[in-house]
Amino acid sequence: MHHQIIVELKIKTMDELQIIQNLIYEVRGVKVMLDKDLAELYHVTTGNLNKAVKRNIRRFPSDFMFQLTKEEWDSLRFQIGILEVGRGKYTKFLPHAFTEQGLAMNWFYSTKG
Length: 113
Description:
Blueprint: H1 2-9, H2 14-21, E1 24-27, E2 30-34, H3 35-42, H4 46-55, E3 65-67, H5 70-80, E4 96-98, H6 100-110
Antiparallel strand pairs: 1-2, 2-4, 3-4
């Protein structure tokens, strides 16, 4: 998975590689990247990323992308140190998680247009 991300995002330095590796989490036994992190890497808003996915939703089956449950998000937030809650602090929607195949598909659509 890391190699795939390196090729697609054109990582130039080891520091950039480390940043990407730190954004990969394990959820449901699968390595994934969250929509907010993927959007940041592509320099788009999370909302715009998710809109593009929705426009092409048939190309994102559950083994490419899935939405975290509240329990999964709470657990992941604890693991990565996002513990604060409150109005305006974090997204009001549960994040989407992209698998390696979903990252590749997302990259494909991000290069079109």
